Amino acid sequence: MISKFTEKLIFMLLFVLSGTEVYAQSGIYACGHIRRTRTTAIPNLKNSGYTNAILFNVNVEQDGTLTTDYDWTNQRPAEAGGIICQNGKYVFDQFQPYYISDVRSLLTEPTSINRVEICIGGWGNASYDHIKTLIAAQGISENSMLYKNFKALKDAIPEIFAVNNDDEQTYDVNTAAQFHTMMYDLGYKTTVAPYMNKNFWYALVSQLNQNRSGACDLIYLQTYGGGAYNNPSDWNFNGIPIWVGYDCESSSNLSDMVTKFQNWKNTSGVVGGFLWNYNSEARNVNEWASAINRVFKTKSTSSPVATFYSDINYGGYAIGLPVGTFTQAEMALYGIKANDITSLKINSGYKVTIYTNADISGTERLLTTSTSWIGTDWNDKICSMKIESTTSGIASETTDQQLSVFPNPTSSFITIHQTQASKLIRIYDAKGKLVKTINPTAENTKVMISDLPKSTYIVKSGNQVTKLLVK
To answer: Which of 220, 236, 116, 209 minimizes the C-alpha distance to 165?
Structure first.
């Protein structure tokens, strides 16, 4: 039997979370760069601070084959692309043998990414023309090539959570709604990336969500390029969260992005931001992501025990952190850029250990008092840290310690990350009934949950609590 405290806590969490979903706040379109230079780009993306990675892109060919960066004229991959799925089979491993493991790695701790999507469409892309023709000829049944190939993709990489619709030329409501209804039934949510043709997008989202409630759960509004004059206040999708975008490919003005995002947050109810795009190392993805996270407060704490500043004498941006372990990815979620801290304040009774590497390793230094200048050897060198109590037992009692579940939502398995591996993990259903108990042997514990019915659950370890959605 669970305690009255736990019952109350579960009830409060379910009450808060029963309405609009809680959304992460920063996303990026990740292009072929993550395949061309995977050994560098994948770790950089994991450590960036972005929470949503939209993989650009998956093309639908005339016969329903799924490709990315493929040269049909010469029958060979262009760059690091190839055929993804053909005739109902996943074949991309013949072209990119590490792709499945790389996508899964994006969601494996330590990482800031908690949602992976694929994008279909883009300027000059005929995928939705092909989808329209294929649906007219074959429908969306299990025998259609669209169904077979996207099912093969979902079976191969179940971590792909959603498909991002970036239709910029076809604009056919009926076939698009049918297609995304099929995708929902296969296990994919839908997001849309409009920049014009507002009536089409309103009709599509409305019809889709009538077909399958909650199928479209996020809007990535293009406020650059052809959508440069879009005002988010003019777009209303019946309460679906809206994120705004910035084209860093055409501009390297980070302060301009921050100003625009902050204004739209203040005036238009925007709840997140995204970047187009990550296709080179021309811009520091960690720098841009942490800046977005400072605007939209992806993670924050009401009880900071240490505060970190980007400038000397406690100047620049200031971010407070609770007790815990903070990799570069976790720091970025709070809005702290790696290699950016110059001064810090530490509350009495706490200590901070700082590290030069992203994963709590490398050269380290212990700090127990505030300092207005961290010194030449450490200025702009902090990439990860631990914050602990100097009083025995307090660190293990804080409610701000990390308990993370990835992927979330999910249908087959989860990886539970906790700061103290010895803590027993319990999963409760919406009524507070204990449905699963896990005795972890490591900080990261993989748990199969395919036996749990579709519902919302509460995962609890000690006094750490988080939500799990099984779909």
So the answer is: 220
Tokens of 462: 């000690």
Count CB atoms within 10 A of the CB of residue 386: 18
**What is the rounded CA–CA span in Å between residue 225 and residue 251?**
11
Assigned token pair, 310: 């980007």
Q: Is the dihedral of CA 238, 239, 241, 246 positive or negative?
A: positive
Question: Amino acid identity, residue 177?
Answer: A
Model confidence over 177-230: pLDDT tens digits?
Answer: 999 999 999 999 999 999 999 999 999 999 999 999 999 999 999 999 999 999
The string of DSSP codes covering 165-202 is EE-SS---HHHHHHHHHHHHHHT-EEEE--SS-HHHHH
Contacts of 136 (CB under 8 A, 6+ apart): 175
Using DSSP's 3-state secondary structure scheme, residue 58 falls into coil
Residue 54 has φ and ψ, to the nearest 5°, of -105, 110
Residue 34 parent element (H or E): helix 33-36
Answer yes or no: is pLDDT of 17 > 50. Answer: no
51 has pLDDT over 80: yes
Q: Residue 47 gets which letter from DSSP?
A: T
Residue whose structure tokens are 């992460």: 24
Amino acid at 452: L
Strands 425-428 and 315-321: unpaired
Tell me what the mean pLDDT of segment 351-370 comes to: 97
At how many degrees (to 10) do helices 145-156 and 173-186 cross?
A: 40
pTM of the predicted protein model: 0.81
From residue 115, alpha-carbon distances to 10, 53, 368, 407, 408 in Å are 24, 6, 37, 7, 8
What's the Rg (C-alpha) of the chain? 23
244, two tokens: 């705004």
Q: How far is it, in rounded angstroms, from Cα 181 to Cα 150?
A: 13
Q: How confident is the model at residue 1 (pLDDT cuts 50, 70, 90)?
A: very low
- The Cα–Cα gap between 303 and 439 comes to 29
Dihedral over Cα of 38, 42, 48, 53: its sign: positive
For every residue of 384-436, DSSP letters joined together read EEEEEESSTTHHHH-TTS-EEEESSSBSSEEEEEES-TTS-EEEE-TTS-EEE
Q: Note the pLDDT of residue 402.
A: 60
As given in the structure block, the two tokens for residue 86 are: 């053909």
Which DSSP string corresponds to 277-303?
Answer: EESSSSS-HHHHHHHHHHHHTSS--SS
pLDDT for residue 367 is more than 60: yes
Which tokens is 186 given?
Answer: 């296969």
